[in-house]
């Protein structure tokens, strides 16, 4: 895509994000319907569904040829990365959304033939947006974002998935101890915002494609290191243990987990 097409794409999705912000604010003021999915800790609300439907409708109008991979299933059954694919996580951090009405995100990413094109992450309650792509640059609320100083675990915060820490997955408690501090946010999108803005040096979690597509796109575009700790290359269509970090923190974590970096 050329710069004009990227600009149009960005302007369009930024408008949708504004609408999603309003939609979520309205929904919060009404009674929310909360259901469970795989377990009592895995929640979904009418807002997750309504926001995904909003995106799907608008993407279909704007980019009718594309396929959509969304968490709540209103998109398509995507089997290959050929062509244009939109990844949509309507509400990321649904537990935070239900319990705190804060610390949740909405995420969209566009890939073309397996390559990242553009992505958007919004902290919905704060209306804080990071957006951009490899050929476009990365912007924080419209201002160019620069890569922060490269610091390692001894000086930086690491963000981890709570479940992996709690169940003491090999290497994870050691990782939390090696860093200057560790944080658990309950939202992949919010975690990525912290790494992208230099407030943390790494985020590592096992996630599904709509959880990591936007974060990985923005991290790569900014010059952060991105990889998996699965001994597998990153596959945009399946779950994976995805690591986003500064160069130094990436090397520290791979050494600590005794993985090849
Ligand atoms: P979600 O809120 O969009 O489901 C912490 O729960 C983070 O892990 C969130 O970003 C959440 O995304 C994601 N996650 C992935 N799979 C999950 C699951 N089965 N249950 C709860 N959260 C999950
Ligand atoms: Ca969910
Ligand atoms: Ca998610
Ligand atoms: Ca979600």
UniProtKB/TrEMBL annotation:
Keywords: Hydrolase, Magnesium, Metal-binding
InterPro entries given in the database record: Inositol_monoP_metal-BS (IPR020583), Inositol_monophosphatase-like (IPR000760)
Alphabetical list of SUPFAM superfamilies matching this protein: Carbohydrate phosphatase
Pfam families in the cross-refs: Inositol_P (PF00459)
Protein name: Inositol monophosphatase family protein
């Amino acid at each position: 895509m050329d710069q004009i097409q990227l600009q149009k794409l960005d302007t369009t999705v930024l408008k949708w994000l504004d609408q999603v912000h309003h939609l979520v604010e309205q929904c919060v003021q009404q009674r929310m319907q909360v259901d469970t999915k795989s377990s009592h800790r895995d929640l979904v609300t009418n807002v997750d569904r309504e926001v995904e439907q909003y995106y799907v409708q608008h993407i279909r109008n704007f980019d009718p040829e594309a396929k959509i991979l969304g968490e709540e299933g209103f998109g398509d059954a995507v089997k290959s990365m050929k062509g244009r694919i939109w990844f949509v996580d309507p509400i990321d951090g649904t537990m935070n959304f239900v319990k705190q009405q804060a610390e949740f995100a909405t995420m969209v990413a566009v890939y073309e033939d397996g390559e990242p094109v553009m992505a958007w992450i919004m902290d919905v309650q704060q209306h804080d947006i990071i957006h951009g792509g490899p050929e476009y640059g990365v912007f924080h609320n419209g201002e160019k974002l620069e890569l922060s100083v490269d610091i390692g675990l001894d000086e930086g915060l690491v963000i981890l998935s709570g479940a992996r820490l709690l169940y003491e997955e090999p290497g994870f408690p050691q990782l939390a101890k090696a860093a200057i501090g560790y944080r658990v946010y309950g939202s992949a999108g919010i975690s990525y915002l912290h790494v992208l803005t230099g407030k943390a040096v790494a985020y590592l979690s096992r996630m599904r494609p709509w959880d990591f597509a936007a974060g990985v796109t923005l991290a790569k575009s900014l010059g952060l290191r991105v990889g998996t700790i699965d001994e597998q290359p990153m596959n945009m269509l399946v779950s994976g243990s995805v690591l986003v970090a500064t160069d130094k923190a990436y090397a520290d974590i791979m050494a600590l987990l005794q993985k090849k970096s």
